[in-house]
Design brief:
Number of domains: 5
Number of strands: 16
Shape: globular
Length: 1063
């Protein structure tokens, strides 16, 4: 019996003993434990079984994890107690979060050490793997915590993690575990190098297939007689993928179904796609190749779109790959040549280049400067146009007859490309067979015939082995079958390796025990193979010869010799004149693991540099460049690459994707060495991310606020341009949330620093104060301030783009707010003129500032029409606002448009003849829901206006008390926020809820006085008209004075009513 067989037998006896004692059969448990001790007299699990309490608790074989801060006592003496508490608290929070994610349970705390139990209270079939994965995550998170502690407190933090599996006494009442296994877990942890995870001998055989391990010399530990053998966990193994080598066996049902589908496609009656789902190496790609064979034998077109593990978040990368392959575009192809090749491809397919190229060029990273007219659409509309054009392109590629479309590795497709696949399937083109391969069904569309592929049976395995190597003996075939578990990839690769060793050696058991060894033997074909294949694997599954040459030091002829040898060994295959592809992803992963970390980092650095070097005339794949910079630990360059990727995504209208790339950029900056340079880089990127978040979610975006606040922390209080830029961005956030006090503090701080070359800051600072005056109801001061600023807008106008990180362009914002000031003061013609000036200003601005500023102005213009009672024009303006919000992906303006449309609908209902109170209930419910949504989001700038609409609806429905309560709440909010621009109208409306006529008269006069003091001519006129209507000619002078405050040529609609009353 081998040592492994001996251990398996002992484990089986212990498992039976645990089951016996847990069901109350102590005699059987004792007998089994004694049998274990007879062959292993010092077995601690058996001893614990014999010593287990007779009642209470349970004995279980559990997986235990112990993590402990390194030198925590020394750490506590180097920093203040409060700092120590912060660090340890964050460490424990991190561990708790990770343990919860993997559904473990923290059983006990010993100082700064935590004992975690996996398998109780919830058991899983993979608790050992969960424990090890959790340990790896703990080490990674503590490493990040260390970087934070080093920056903040000047100390480093590290953790040791140990994992063991054994018998423990589980005290369910006290929520604790006892026994040697628990103690040994802590001892295993103590011998782990800082920042690593080690596992015991009991764990190693259970995880060796899923994690990379390194055996370490046994070490003595306290309380254990023999040195403890242990293994360091290097990381989780990557999941392989491949293209099959051998013949197709064991898939008769699948092949038969493919043949039937192809016959239907030829008849034009095919209804569903086919998907092959299963683990890597199970034969998905081999079945897809069978479909290709069927199509090609019929003379039909077969088109394949590949997923990439390195581009799962890069929008439309599989389509870009397809375009590049079909057009003959390489990484180094110049922009102008890319455009020419794309135009040729489109023309050859019989499509119109003038409409198709502007939508496909951005997918290939071709900018309009290369020589085409960019598409007029932006944002969501551009995204939709591109998707539709890709759909049309795919149809053009396969032609008018029956054809095949293969979607390889759907699990690696980005969401945008998944949408393209869904669109293609929904078209239900009965002449096109679509075959999909995926490792799981997560991204599969609903109406697809799915084949879940299982391992081959023993008979099918033998058939495959015989097909590959008919000369192998029965014993060798049995050895291969036992080792390969029916996975076609394993079978093919192991059999291929047998060609390189004598058959007698194979018969004697020298057939590789793991697939890794068979693959490794193929990779070491010639003297220079290793450095070349390492570099190729570092580039990726598909690589071009020129980039490979730049990553190696070998002469060009030597590299070509190696490539030829690797082709002969079926390690790689040529996909074009200078482009190659690993036949299996697994081969690439093994080759990648050949190089030590230092060599690997250097290779990534050289590849990234080569990608950048080719960017002068050919736009690089920035996502790929960023990945190489990451692996090279060149985080500053990686952040720059992600910024470039974000810019490309924004130009395609994919704001969500752009935000994702900026998130990645910030993550890279956080890994840079602390210092002023890193701080500046973080500020630079966070300002841009906050800018985009504001465009999508509105200037009240919580993400934008987090970014801007963080920028403020980083720039300190020194009056640099970075500081002033950050403060300007924060102003927009605070103002939108009606936090006028903090908005004014921001402006005041910036005002104190006006000096040097910051004249444009002064202009916008003055504008900010004037806008705050408007919100506070100080309309005269607001108008005068904004008019003064508008006259000085040429100062520093060219610098705005570099420093303005809010989506509302400053000059457009000034004109819009000046329009609002003139409106309230009765100058409706002047207000319209300012809105017209805004429209001219934004007409030539880029995305997103131009469309965002236009939408902002529209929201104010709609309010103007609502106040004027022109509900038709208000509805038209709101509809345009809603369309822009959908087109450009502006979520905040979508909600504004919905609220304003509900306002228009409610006011139309109020204006109807003989309105029934019951008919208003729907409007009340919808409007109330929207207003409460704004209140919950703490976007409160216009909340008092919307509250007034709800109150008017309630009053008309006969719910006077509720209307008064709503108006009181609005006035209270105004008092709390200092937002008083609508106070006069709120007070007027509230006066009408008074039952007592004297109280109503008194309240109306107070509202009139407030409107007059604010310079709010439209509100003063409205109130004076009410007083005149109630009091008759005695109030004539009040109304005449209110009319006199309007410009002589004013066309404000309510003047007609007022003049009629005076007449």
């Amino acid at each position: 019996m081998t040592e492994r067989d001996h251990r398996r037998a002992v484990d089986e006896l212990l498992d039976r003993a645990v089951q016996a004692i847990n069901r109350g059969d102590r005699a059987t448990a004792t007998s089994l434990a004694e049998r274990v001790l007879a062959v292993d007299r010092r077995n601690p699990d058996a001893e614990d079984l014999l010593a287990a309490p007779a009642t209470g608790g349970e004995l279980r074989r559990l997986t235990l994890l112990f993590c402990d801060l390194v030198d925590s006592t020394v750490l506590s003496t180097r920093i203040e107690p409060e700092a120590y508490r912060i660090i340890v608290g964050k460490y424990r929070d991190q561990v708790q979060r990770i343990v919860d994610r993997y559904e473990g349970h923290i059983g006990s705390t010993k100082g700064d050490g935590l004992l975690v139990v996996f398998g109780y209270p919830q058991a899983h079939e993979n608790d050992v793997r969960r424990a090890v994965q959790a340990g790896l995550e703990i080490t990674r998170d503590v490493a990040r915590l260390s970087a934070q502690a080093r920056e903040r407190f000047g100390v480093d933090v590290s953790v040791r993690v140990g994992v063991h599996r054994g018998l423990v006494y589980l005290d369910t009442g006290q929520d604790d575990v006892y026994g040697f296994a628990a103690n040994l877990t802590a001892r295993v942890s103590s011998i782990a190098p800082p920042g690593t995870v080690v596992v015991s001998d009991a764990v190693e055989p259970l995880i060796r297939d899923t994690f990379d391990l390194a055996s370490r010399p046994p070490q003595p530990v306290k309380g254990v007689e023999e040195p403890v053998a242990h293994h360091e966990v290097l990381g989780e193994r990557a999941t392989p993928t491949r293209i099959a080598l051998g013949p197709l066996v064991g898939r008769l049902d699948e092949l038969t179904y493919l043949e039937k589908c192809w016959a239907r496609a030829q008849a034009g009656t095919l209804e569903t796609a086919v998907a092959f789902v299963g683990e890597a190496g199970i034969g998905k790609s081999r079945l897809a190749q069978a479909a290709v064979d069927l199509a090609e034998q019929s003379g039909a077109t077969a088109l394949t779109v590949f997923g990439s593990p390195f581009h799962t978040t890069a929008g439309l990368h599989p389509i870009r790959d397809l375009l590049e392959r079909r057009c003959g575009i390489t990484r180094l192809t110049a922009q102008s040549e890319r455009l020419r090749l794309l135009e040729k491809e489109i023309t050859d397919l019989g499509r119109d280049p003038t409409t198709t190229v502007p939508r496909l060029a951005p997918v290939l990273g071709i900018s309009a400067e290369a020589g085409y007219q960019a598409a007029e659409a932006e944002g969501g509309k551009l995204y939709e146009d591109i998707a539709e054009t890709i759909h049309d392109y795919l149809i053009a590629c396969v032609g008018r007859d029956s054809a095949l479309l293969v979607i390889e590795d759907l699990h690696w497709f980005d969401p945008s490309t998944v949408d393209v696949v869904d669109r293609f399937l929904n078209a239900r083109l009965g002449r096109i067979l679509v075959v999909i391969t995926a490792r799981d069904a997560t991204k599969l569309p609903g109406d697809v015939k799915i084949f879940d592929l299982n391992p081959l049976t023993d008979d099918d395995t033998d058939a495959l082995i015989v097909a590959l190597a008919p000369e192998l003996s029965t014993d060798v075939r049995r050895s291969v079958r036992q080792r390969c578990d029916g996975v076609p990839l394993y079978i093919e690769e192991v059999v291929t390796a047998l060609d390189r060793v004598p058959l007698t050696a194979a018969h004697d058991g020298h057939v590789p025990d793991a697939l890794y060894e068979s693959l490794l033997s193929r990779l070491r074909a010639t003297r220079n193979t290793v450095p070349v294949v390492e570099a190729a694997a570092t580039i990726g599954r598909e690589f071009d010869r020129q980039l490979l040459l730049s990553a190696t030091d070998l002469p060009e002829a030597d590299v070509d010799d190696v490539l030829g040898a690797l082709e002969d060994a079926r390690v790689i295959e040529r996909t074009s004149a200078d482009t190659f592809r690993f036949r299996h992803e697994l081969l690439r992963e093994v080759a990648y693991e050949l190089s030590p970390p230092s060599v690997r980092r250097a290779l990534h650095g050289r590849i990234a540099a080569a990608l950048d070097a080719g960017s002068a005339d050919a736009k690089p794949d920035w996502r790929l460049a960023a990945r190489h910079y990451d692996e090279a630990h060149r985080f500053d360059d990686g952040a720059t690459a992600y910024q470039q990727a974000a810019s490309d995504a924004r130009r395609r209208g994919a704001l969500g994707e752009s935000l994702g790339f900026l998130n990645e950029a910030i993550t890279r900056v956080e890994r840079m060495a602390p210092g002023s340079h890193r701080d500046r880089r973080e500020v630079e990127i966070r300002l841009r991310r906050g800018f985009l978040a504001s465009a999508v979610e509105g200037t009240s975006s919580a993400l934008a606020a987090i970014d801007f606040e963080r920028c403020l922390q980083l720039v300190g209080t020194e009056l640099t341009e970075e500081f002033l830029t950050t403060m300007t961005a924060l102003y927009g956030y605070f103002a939108t949330r009606a936090d006028l006090k903090r908005a004014e503090q921001v402006l005041t701080t910036v005002r104190a620093g006006q000096a040097g070359n910051v004249a444009w800051f002064l202009v916008n600072n003055d504008a900010g104060f004037a806008m705050l005056a408007w919100y506070r109801g100080q309309f005269v001061a607001a108008r005068e301030g904004l008019e003064s600023v508008a006259a000085r807008t040429d100062v520093g106008a060219g610098e705005d783009e570099a420093h303005w990180f809010t989506p509302n362009e400053p000059l457009a914002s000034i004109y819009t707010h000046l329009a609002a000031a003139r409106l309230v003061m009765g100058d409706s013609a002047g207000a319209q003129a300012e809105f017209d000036r805004t429209a001219r200003r934004v007409e030539h601005l880029g995305f997103p500032q131009g469309p965002y500023s236009a939408a902002y102005a529209r929201s104010y213009q709609a309010w103007m029409y609502i106040e004027a009672g022109d509900l038709g024009r208000a509805a038209t303006t709101v509809a345009a606002l809603a369309a822009d919000a959908e087109r450009y992906g502006f979520d905040a303006f979508a909600l504004i448009a919905a609220t304003q449309q509900c306002t228009v609908d409610g006011l139309r209902a109020l204006a109807a003849d003989d309105v029934e109170p019951a008919a208003l209930e729907t409007h009340i419910g919808t409007m109330t829901m929207l207003v409460e949504a704004w209140r919950a989001a703490e976007v409160r700038m216009f909340l008092t206006f919307y509250d007034s609409i709800v109150a008017r609806l309630l009053f008309a429905a006969g719910r006077t008390g509720e209307a008064r309560t709503r108006l009181d709440a609005a006035l209270q909010l105004a008092a709390e926020t200092d937002v008083h621009f609508y106070d006069a109208e709120l007070s007027r409306l509230r006066a009408h809820t008074e039952v007592d006529t004297d109280a109503r008269d008194r309240s109306l006069r107070e509202a009139l006085a407030l409107a007059r003091s604010q310079g709010a001519a439209i509100f003063e006129l409205r109130t004076a008209a009410d007083l005149h209507q109630l009091g008759g000619d005695s109030e004539r002078e009040l109304l005449a004075n209110a009319v006199g405050r309007f410009p002589p040529d004013s066309t404000w609609p309510e003047l007609t009513r007022a003049r009629a009353l005076l007449a």
